[in-house]
Amino acid sequence: MQLRGSSLEEGKNPTVTVKINQPRVMPHRLLKLLLLFLVLCFIFSAVTISLIRHFGGQSIFVTNMSRTTFLSCIDEEPLNFDRWIRPPTNLLHSMNDSELLWRASFIPQRKEYPFKRVPKIAFMFLTKGPLPLAPIWERFFRGHDGLYSIYVHSLPSFKPQFPSSSVFYKRQIPSQVSEWGRMSICDAERRLLANALLDISNEWFILLSESCAPLSNFTVAYQYLMKSKYSFIGAFDDPGPHGRGRYKENMLPEVNISEWRKGSQWFEVNRKLAISIVEDNKFYPKFLEFCRPPCYVDEHYFPTMLTIRAPTMLANRSITWVDWSRGGPHPATFGRGDITEEFMKRVLEHQNCTYNGQQSSVCYLFGRKFAPSTLEPLLLLAPKYLGF
Ligand SMILES: *[C@@H]1O[C@H](CO)[C@@H](O)[C@H](O)[C@H]1NC(C)=O
Ligand SMILES: *[C@@H]1O[C@H](CO)[C@@H](O)[C@H](O)[C@H]1NC(C)=O
Ligand SMILES: *[C@@H]1O[C@H](CO)[C@@H](O)[C@H](O)[C@H]1NC(C)=O
Ligand SMILES: *[C@@H]1O[C@H](CO)[C@@H](O)[C@H](O)[C@H]1NC(C)=O
Ligand SMILES: *[C@@H]1O[C@H](CO)[C@@H](O)[C@H](O)[C@H]1NC(C)=O
Ligand SMILES: *[C@@H]1O[C@H](CO)[C@@H](O)[C@H](O)[C@H]1NC(C)=O
């Protein structure tokens, strides 16, 4: 009796045939083999059962053998969905900037998330070292676990001393020395954004410094950001020497003077714009080469780039309050004596701005620049004026 090879080979390889033994001999041999097999099975089971009895539930034989075979065969965890959606537990990775920015620029193409994604706010602290206002932030975050994440960029030489109960504990990212007014400060901001983007649940990205304090409670801030149609970054066209005066024609064709913008660097952007900042390698080289002091790159790079890339997504204002009323090239720094009930009223009342295309009396969620000495009066006045 002859059988043809499988249908795949049909016609292609007619010589492939399978011979089968004569039918009479088969049952007898097969029966013998089967019997032998059954006997072996019985012996094996008996030995196994007695071993399990002897060593109790946690038989070395079974657990350790299966474990070692498993490890030697696969050598690592099987691909697990959790791995894609769980934020990194340790922020101290070993990626350099090009690797990090590349990794952070990944965007899922499917609109729906196959899990319950609770959007979070990433609070990114760009600091030299200590966070003197940490206690007010601790209070601000209290009771809102799962709705925020924290990232701190400080001088690489700084060794933080936060207790394990602190929201800032182990939230330091691999940092590098950065200098105000130079591209290294934008690099630090991109590094913060990129680290925060690695957590797929982060939806808003807030840049803060050690002198920033909250001007609302967490609930108000969360709602304000999550419902906003626009991202917040100061971006205005200043015709003077400190605005358009810093523009260089060498930036053409990437940047036209009509698109040149100025603004303070304290931005609040959504995930889409955060990725836009991290992925940019079109404008970056131009600003690196042609915006050097007295062109302060941190005042122009992001506002200009985002104005070109996503003008309709910008509110063109920041929600970080700062006081320019004292004049001079720098905004006022407040000390202990400044933080009074009158001060709080002055800052919080009479706000008037556009929010989602409507007049709003809530314009600022954060403020600067608060000296370390303001901590005590801020903590004292927060319950009455800030709602936490
Ligand atoms: C199983 O193997 C591990 C090491 O791989 C060893 O530490 C452990 O003691 C073993 N278990 C038993 C029950 O012998
Ligand atoms: C990062 O590391 C890769 C591979 O070692 C290297 O090619 C790249 O130039 C590095 N980038 C930076 C910014 O150091
Ligand atoms: C810059 O843009 C304006 C319009 O916004 C255009 O009229 C002008 O020609 C552009 N300049 C250059 C050098 O391309
Ligand atoms: C922000 O400015 C851009 C142009 O610079 C403009 O297109 C956009 O409409 C402005 N956003 C708002 C909310 O007015
Ligand atoms: C806010 O400002 C707009 C225009 O700048 C004005 O029309 C409006 O009356 C002001 N609202 C309040 C409450 O002051
Ligand atoms: C947050 O502040 C708002 C406005 O000040 C207040 O109405 C609200 O009760 C506060 N929320 C909490 C949880 O304290």
TrEMBL record:
**Location within or outside the cell:** Membrane
Pfam families assigned = Branch (PF02485)
Signal is among the record's keywords? no
GO cellular component terms, A-Z: membrane
Topology in the lipid bilayer: Single-pass type II membrane protein
Membrane spanning stretches: 33-52
Q: Which UniProt keywords apply?
A: Glycoprotein, Glycosyltransferase, Membrane, Transferase, Transmembrane, Transmembrane helix
**Record's superkingdom?**
Eukaryota
A GO molecular function annotation here is: glycosyltransferase activity
Q: What is this protein called?
A: Uncharacterized protein
**Organism field:** Daucus carota subsp. sativus (Carrot)
